[in-house]
Write a structure and sequence with these properties.
CATH topology of the largest domain: Rossmann fold
Number of strands: 17
CATH class of the largest domain: Alpha Beta
Low-confidence stretches: 46-57
Strand order of the largest sheet: 5-6-7-3-8-9
Number of helices: 10
Number of domains: 2
Largest sheet: 6 strands, mixed
Shape: globular
Distance between the termini: 91 Å
Helix content: 10-25%
């Protein structure tokens, strides 16, 4: 019998497990269609359906457990974040709770009306207009037509699709898809709102509006399950979080503790020892790269203008004392174009004799990068003799997202450039043309 707490919980999961069968390309993949059909029929006659049901190695299929023995309870009105690396099982869990897929093992119960926003276009029919989709979604949530009509204007205004209300949704951009789907899900008063990383498609102003809406919706006693890779958003929105790792619950507790554990996991996971494309003698090797805040907290994403420490943990295997070491980092965009480089001797820093272990730490006081993904490469070399000890291109990728560089306005679009600079403007009096200095032209 379930406990009395479970009877009043909004969501209960007990031993949830989900198995998928992954197909692998086998040798002799260049068989003709006739040969492939003949082989398939022969296998079925020998062992009907066995390869498909049991993932037999002969079938070229492998069992993959996306979730394994996941259990938790969520009470009405709780705002719970789900964090974890890509492939940890977050989306699979939300699909099970939304009754999109069935678990392989375990059971769950959901009390109340559920609205899910799991990917771009969830619950939106492309052939129908925006107006028709609003009524369709409301009907699927069990609402009467009068209830939908009462909320209709508010939904349209929030989604900002007034001009395209009677246009088939298949002609919408991905951002318009998300605005409409989220607006419908949030305004039709569900008891439980489930939101995946889909909000990352929208622009910054719309993301902010969505977060404010989720806070107001859950403030009325409704339950929220929220998946995001933006830890600052999870921290501001959710008091409790669940950390999934390899399909299992690694930690369930207060959001601050869960985020710290998640960052520690990411820090340990960024192990460079398996990289085979590095160059150099190997006497000095960078073993791990991490980004930390000014206070020393691990960072999953950096805000534009934030002070950040780029930390390169290293091991020194040289039998002789090493001096005059230069540690250099270079940041590129995803297209491989260099944005900036920095090394210790630009600031006049001499490490002296290098210890057996330690960290090269480069502090960027005000990161001048616009919101985007960037790659970081490094080079460890001798300054005088130019000996190359360790070099690795595209060692890690990191994300710059959010606001913070400009206190009164958001950063300009990336189409204006990927770097940001401070500028101080003032209104001056008309200047006397005669006071302008002649331009200096070098010969």
């Amino acid at each position: 019998m379930p406990s009395s707490d479970a009877m009043t919980a909004a969501i209960v999961a007990e031993g949830l497990s989900k198995k998928y069968l992954i197909a692998h390309q086998r040798e002799q993949a260049d068989l003709s269609l006739r040969d492939a059909l003949a082989r398939g029929v022969g296998q079925c006659l020998k062992a009907p359906f066995r390869p498909w049901l049991k993932g037999d190695p002969e079938s070229g299929r492998e069992e993959f457990w996306a979730l394994s023995e996941v259990g938790f309870e969520i009470r009405p009105g709780e705002r719970v974040g789900i964090v974890g690396r890509n492939g940890a099982g977050k989306s699979t869990l939300l699909k099970i709770l939304s009754r999109i897929v069935e678990p392989t093992r375990g059971r769950f119960s959901v009390r109340g009306r559920v609205a899910s926003l799991l990917e771009v276009g969830t619950g939106v029919h492309g052939e129908l207009t925006g107006r028709e989709n609003i009524y369709l979604n409301g009907a699927l949530l069990g609402m009467r037509k009068a209830e939908i009509r009462r909320k209709f204007d508010e939904i349209v205004q929030f989604a900002e699709v007034e001009r395209f209300l009677d246009t088939p949704v298949k002609r919408y951009s991905s951002g318009m898809y998300v605005r409409l789907a989220f607006s419908v899900a949030a305004h039709l008063e569900p008891d439980i709102l489930i939101v995946d990383e889909v909000l990352a498609v929208g622009d910054i102003s719309f993301q902010k509006k969505c977060l404010e809406k989720m806070e107001s919706v859950t403030g009325g006693g409704r339950t929220l399950l929220f998946v995001s890779h933006n830890m600052s958003t999870v921290a501001s929105l959710c008091s409790r979080s669940i950390f999934l790792a390899n399909g299992r619950v690694a930690l369930d507790g207060p959001t601050d503790a869960v985020i710290n554990e998640y960052f520690a996991f990411l820090d340990n996971a960024c192990d460079l020892s398996t990289r085979t494309d590095r160059k150099g003698t190997g006497e000095v090797r960078v073993t791990r790269i991490s980004l930390r805040s000014e206070a020393g907290a691990p960072l999953n994403a950096v805000a534009p203008g934030q002070t950040v420490d780029i930390c390169l943990a290293f091991s020194n295997r040289s039998p002789q004392p090493l001096r005059g070491i230069r540690s250099m980092i270079t940041v590129h965009n995803r297209q491989g174009q260099p944005i900036f480089s920095q090394h210790n001797q630009l600031s006049g820093t001499d490490y002296g004799a290098l210890p057996e272990q330690g960290e090269f730490i480069c502090r960027i006081p005000r990161l001048p990068l616009n919101s985007a993904f960037y790659k970081l490469s490094y080079t460890i070399s001798g300054f005088g003799d130019s000996t190359l000890y360790d070099q690795l291109a595209d060692a890690i990728e990191f994300k710059v997202a959010g606001t913070g560089f400009f206190p009164n306005a958001r950063a300009p679009s990336n189409s204006y450039g990927q770097t940001l600079v401070d500028g101080y403007w003032r209104l001056g009096e008309p200047a006397d043309q005669g006071n302008y200095a002649e331009p200096v032209i070098s010969s």
